[in-house]
């Protein structure tokens, strides 16, 4: 079974909100001019950040990049797996994420694809 770059989970007793999950591969320490979403495929969203991978700086930069790209507040994003790894799972909640699975996935993919084309 292969990983998915984007998937959606509806609210449950454990998680009170609908959640969009993004499987990300992070490249820290890149030139500031290359920072952003560099590719999106079926397996992962590739993100380059200028911050170094120490003391959580790259993780903060990943949240900032995704916040800007997905038009969500930073408080709506959380790294749920991979805090000390280049492979991370990021959860997004609130705002347009609650628009239903099909619409949410379409909109997320649209935002991510647009970010790749403009970087």
UniProtKB/TrEMBL annotation:
SMART domains for the chain: DUF167
Pfam families in the cross-refs: DUF167
Gene3D superfamilies, per database record: YggU-like
GO CC term, one of those recorded: cytoplasm
SUPFAM superfamilies: YggU-like
InterPro entries registered for this protein in UniProt: DUF167 (IPR003746), YggU-like_sf (IPR036591)
Family: Belongs to the UPF0235 family.
PANTHER family, alphabetized: UPF0235 PROTEIN C15ORF40
HAMAP family recorded: UPF0235 (MF_00634)
Protein name: YggU-like protein
Organism: Thermothielavioides terrestris (strain ATCC 38088 / NRRL 8126) (Thielavia terrestris)
